[in-house]
Design brief:
Residues 29-48 have a biased composition (Low complexity). Residues 1-20 form the signal peptide. This is Sugar ABC transporter substrate-binding protein. InterPro entries: Bact_Solute-Bind_Prot2, Peripla_BP_I, SBP_2_dom. The model is unreliable at 1-44 (pLDDT under 50). The protein is built from eleven helices and twelve strands. By secondary structure, the protein is α/β, with parallel strands linked by helices. It has a six-stranded parallel β-sheet, with helices on both faces. Strands 7-6-8-9-10-12 form a six-stranded mixed β-sheet, with helices on both faces. α2 (68-84) links the parallel β1 and β2 (88-93). It is globular, with a radius of gyration of 29 Å. The chain has helices at 2-47, 68-84, 98-110, 123-135, 159-173, 189-204, 221-235, 250-263, 277-284, 298-313, 360-368; strands at 58-63, 88-93, 115-119, 140-143, 153-156, 178-183, 208-214, 244-247, 269-273, 290-295, 321-323, 327-330. α3 (98-110) runs parallel beside α4 (123-135). The protein has two domains: 51-157 and 299-324, Response regulator (Rossmann fold, 3-Layer(aba) Sandwich); 159-295, Rossmann fold, CATH 3.40.50.2300.
Amino acid sequence: MKKLCSILLIILLFTLTACKSEQDAVSTQQQQTATKETTSKQETSQTEIPKQVQKPLKVALIMQMSIGTFSSQYIEGVKKQIEQFGGSVQVYNSDNDLAKMAANLDAAINAKVDGILIDHGRSEALKQGVEKALQANIPVVAFDNDLRLPGVTVIDQDDYSLAWKSLKTLAEDLNGKGNIAVVWVGGFAPMEHRSVIIDAFYKRYPNIKEVARFGTASNNTALDTQAQVEALLKKYPKKGELNAIFAAWDEFAKGAVKALEQAGRTDIKVYGIDLSNEDLQLMQKSNSPWVATAATDPAEVGKVQVRFLYQKIAREHTPDIYSLEPHLVKKSNLPTENVAMEQLSKYINGWGNSKDAYSPWMNKLEKEKK
């Protein structure tokens, strides 16, 4: 009898275990099916073009000023990305007049555009207009601006990093000792950020002395800078009195380079910020004093800014602030033959390959609008 009971107990245990295993298998299969269905729905929703961006969108680009080749390549980047998305853009150039920039912003709002891009400018001049845009449900993305409003994404080139990369290279080339001049101008958010690093730079390298600081932003910035550097060279005519010039903007660097070339001062080197095709040509010239610059691809900046705007219009989450990764471009890294900006990725790791702010559906949108 005991033996029979034991046998029956074992059979019962096997039956219960088998049932439990079958239930677990069914449960696991159901979970896997549900997960696959959820993942499939998520993938579909991520690649499906949001209805808000399916129509051709009208975008306004409000610029504080449009000076030099950096700005022109930035504008081309904005235009190219918007055209790839099937939209159109109107560029408002404010000629470095903040009152005019505020008026241009109002004009864009009154034109009932679908989105607004802002290039430079100051918060005190634009805050009221941007708030008006947001109240009208017009999303805003700004570049190199000090706006800090909920819902507005502000992108920059990481101006602190730009300044440090260039200045650190200068210090290393001078072996931590020498006299330098700084070409800089206030009144612009990126310049104020770069100034913070300039001040910190002297604490890190106390044996590097600033003997002059100057700079103006105008419609002829490069020419103005050339004249200012020519006057500077008369103050320091002897080799060793001035070792380098740090130019906080490529328009400054272009003017400094031309002044040094005309004076035959190969003993003074230029370290800059920003880069364009014209800048590259100057750097690649034989015996060019322009030996290094820290930069992001201006066209890529424009494209990233547009993509953030389209994400906002599609009601996707976007950050309040975003910094693009800058690169150090040294003359010694470039080939002897001339290269253009679009070829720099062959020589500068990571250049021009940004997928920042790129949503999966954007690829489909670009293909459909071809």
